[in-house]
Amino acid sequence: MSLKSSRDGIAAEIAMKKKERTTRQISSKDGGSSSLPARKALAAAFISTFANALLSIAKLVAGIMGGSAALVSDAVNSLGDVASSLLVIGGVAVSRKQADREHQYGHEKAESIVSLFLALALVGGGIFIGIRGVELLLNPESIVIPTLLPLAVAAGTMVSKEVLYRYTKRVAKATGSSSLEATAWDHRSDVFSALGVFVGILGARLGMPVLEPIASLLICLLILKAGVHVLMESINVLLDASVDEKTRASLKSAIKSINGVLGIDLLKTRRTGFGYYVEVEIRCDSELSLRAAHNIAEDVHHSIEHQFPCAKHVTVHVNPAGESVDGTFHAPDGNVPPPVAVSQNSPPSSSE
């Protein structure tokens, strides 16, 4: 690697990072599109909180008036959902805070911490439903035959929660919000929970009270599965897990399509909050000037920013073709040639 080429690569990287800092400062001052996912996530969290509060009141009143202990228990579970939704709102609000001296990469992982607690609450709720099912299975005489009011409210809860699940899931996918993902699965678990209540009430009224505890045990397993899924996703984000293979392949394709990029020496990503960070080392012609190398790096940066809205920060480093960071020779076409054979009868000529 020539000294001039090395200086070109380093200078291009420094210039690129300066531009990134300027761009991010302007974006934060103007309230750019980077805050849009957070606003959508906050709106979805507020809607979830309001809906959970209404459902809690409706189920509590119907359960008491209709003589359904199962619906009263479900109402208590919904009150927990209200607290979870408030936790999501707090987590999203914290994650929107700008970077400071103590947190120079921002506060976006606060959202993953919130989703971690929500996952644990989801698992706890599933275990609670399972225990309640076992208790009813062992004591079927304790099951009270309720009126039609709790049955109607349970049916309405299933429909409402399924609508909330689909809406929240869509927003979570659009924004990349891990805590909203956890909230969506919490809505889906409530659908199963309401289904168990509905089946139990219907079974009691038809003379088959044992249906409620059996349904509760099945629902317990479904909720535990969803809770473990959210838990693992939260842990992966906190451990800087990379993006999925499809996104990685798309990133590679976009980078290689830039004129002047001869290859990719390194591509690293890590998920955080509402998006992910990208670090790439590209290979360019070693005879290029500093200005030309900088322009190519800038093109790569802009291409990733425009094609991948969830890419929150992009770092581009330029390596000269001919030698990579590990000292391996690379031809301009990106291929690694086989080693040159040296005759044992004559010493190799000195390159110096």
How do the helices and strands line up, and which of them pair or pack?
Blueprint lengths: L2 H28 L5 H31 L2 H27 L14 H29 L9 H28 L2 H28 L5 H28 L6 H12 L6 E10 L2 E10 L5 H18 L3 E10 L32
Parallel strand pairs: 2-3
Antiparallel strand pairs: 1-2
Helix pairs in contact: 1-9, 2-3, 2-5, 3-4, 3-6, 4-6, 4-7, 5-6, 6-7
Percentage of helical residues? 55-70%
Percent strand equals 5-15%
CATH topology assignment of the largest domain? Alpha-lytic protease prodomain-like
The count of DSSP E runs of length 2 or more, i.e. the number of strands, is 3
Radius of gyration: 28 Å
What is the tally of helical segments?
9
The ordered string of helix (H) and strand (E) elements is HHHHHHHHEEHE
CATH class of the largest domain: Mainly Alpha
- Output mean pLDDT: 76
Shape verdict: elongated
Which architecture of the largest domain does the CATH hierarchy give at level 2?
Up-down Bundle
- Give the strand order, joined by hyphens, for the main sheet: 1-2-3
**Span between N and C termini?**
14 Å
* Poorly predicted spans: 1-7, 9-34, 327-352
Domain Cation efflux protein transmembrane: 46-239
Membrane topology: Multi-pass membrane protein
Family: Belongs to the cation diffusion facilitator (CDF) transporter (TC 2.A.4) family.
Subcellular location: Membrane
